[in-house]
């Protein structure tokens, strides 16, 4: 190897890394990306709330007394909020899951359809959550 | 599925733990089952006439509904295992911590499964 080659200055190579957690706020996800991360968040939420669901199911089924107890705690604001979180999580995960199943058939694969179906998931979930919220807090 | 292990040609085994397809399929099958259960629960709820304890417990007192609910719960717990494990694998890098979280997740889901059997057969 000649001296000239050995002593040539190294080129600055650009380094590409995954975005850091601190960059998340400044990074605008496309709608399909928002649905994707919400799928994960809603799934984790349902997992964390599993004991609450099983406890409430147990109270609602075991006896008439426990059913009355279930009705009692189900009418407290905190439990209503937990219900609402569950309804949001379940609906979000359900709709995004059905979207996955449809996309498995190679439908909605182009950018425009993916964006529209993602918007559909968010809108349907928002409407269902809003209706349940109004019902839970006694608007109708 | 046949795997060409001779190391020659375009169909040779290249990389991978080969559990991807199984997980993908399991998420779909368990997901579809939960969609069906949700639909039946909704249909039952909106066509019901008795919203008291008798009506609710009467639904769960039927053997077919107990079994259907249990199978759906089992699907839910397996679905949750695949999903939560993916979360640990994506975000938790130290092997020891990840293993501990995975063991806790399995233990927790098995406990939930036993609890759901107890709940269903107490009606």
Written overview of the protein:
- The complex is a heterodimer of chains A (140) and B (123).
- Chain A is mainly α.
- Chain A has a single domain, classed as Fumarate reductase/succinate dehydrogenase, transmembrane subunit (3 helical TM bundles of succinate and fumarate reductases, Up-down Bundle).
- Chain A is 72% helix and 0% strand.
- Chain A is built from five helices and no strands.
- Chain A has helices at 3-6, 31-62, 64-74, 77-104, 111-136.
- The radius of gyration of chain A is 24 Å and the shape is elongated.
- The mean pLDDT of chain A is 90.
- With 123 residues, chain B is mostly helical.
- Chain B has one domain: 3 helical TM bundles of succinate and fumarate reductases, CATH 1.20.1300.10.
- In chain B, 75% of the residues lie in helices and 0% in strands.
- Chain B is built from four helices and no strands.
- In chain B, helix 1 (20-47) packs across helix 3 (63-91) and helix 3 packs antiparallel against helix 4.
- The radius of gyration of chain B is 20 Å and the shape is elongated.
- The N and C termini of chain B lie far apart (45 Å).
- The A-B interface holds A 40, 43-44, 46-47, 50-51, 54, 57-58, 60-62, 64, 67-68, 94, 97-98, 100-101, 104 and B 28, 31-32, 35, 38, 53, 56-57, 60, 80, 83-84, 87, 112, 115-116, 119-120, 122-123.
Q: Give the total of beta strands of chain A.
A: 0
Number of helices of chain A: 5
Shape of chain A: elongated
Distance between the termini of chain A: 84 Å
Query: Overall 3D geometry of chain B?
Result: elongated
Total of helices of chain B: 4
CATH architecture of chain A: Up-down Bundle
Query: In terms of structural class, how would the helical and strand content of chain A be classed?
Result: mainly alpha
For the largest beta-sheet of chain A, the strand count, sense and barrel status come to: none
CATH homologous superfamily of chain B, by name? Answer: Fumarate reductase/succinate dehydrogenase, transmembrane subunit
């Amino acid at each position: 190897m000649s001296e000239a080659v050995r002593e040539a200055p190294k080129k600055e190579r650009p380094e590409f890394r995954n975005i850091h957690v601190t960059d998340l706020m400044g990074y605008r996800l496309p709608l399909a990306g928002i649905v994707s991360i919400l799928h994960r968040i809603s799934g984790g939420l349902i997992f964390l709330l599993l004991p609450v669901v099983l406890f409430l199911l147990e109270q609602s089924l075991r006896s008439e007394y426990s059913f009355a107890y279930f009705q009692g705690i189900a009418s407290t604001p905190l439990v209503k909020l937990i219900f609402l979180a569950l309804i949001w999580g379940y609906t979000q995960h359900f709709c995004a899951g059905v979207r996955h199943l449809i996309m498995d058939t190679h439908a909605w694969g182009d950018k425009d359809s993916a964006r529209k179906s993602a918007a559909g998931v968010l809108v349907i979930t928002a409407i269902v959550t809003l209706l349940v919220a109004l019902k839970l807090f006694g608007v109708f | 599925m046949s795997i060409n292990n001779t190391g020659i040609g375009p169909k040779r085994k290249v990389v991978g733990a080969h559990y991807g397809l199984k997980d993908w399929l399991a998420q779909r099958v368990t997901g579809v089952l939960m969609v069906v259960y949700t639909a039946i629960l909704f249909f039952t709820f909106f066509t019901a006439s008795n919203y008291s304890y008798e009506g609710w417990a009467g639904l769960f007192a039927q053997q077919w509904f107990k079994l259907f609910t249990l199978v759906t719960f089992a699907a839910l717990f397996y679905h949750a295992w695949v999903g939560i494990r993916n979360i640990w694998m994506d975000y938790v890098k130290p092997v020891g911590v990840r293993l501990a979280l995975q063991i806790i997740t399995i233990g927790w889901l098995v406990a939930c499964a036993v609890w759901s059997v107890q709940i269903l057969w107490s009606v």
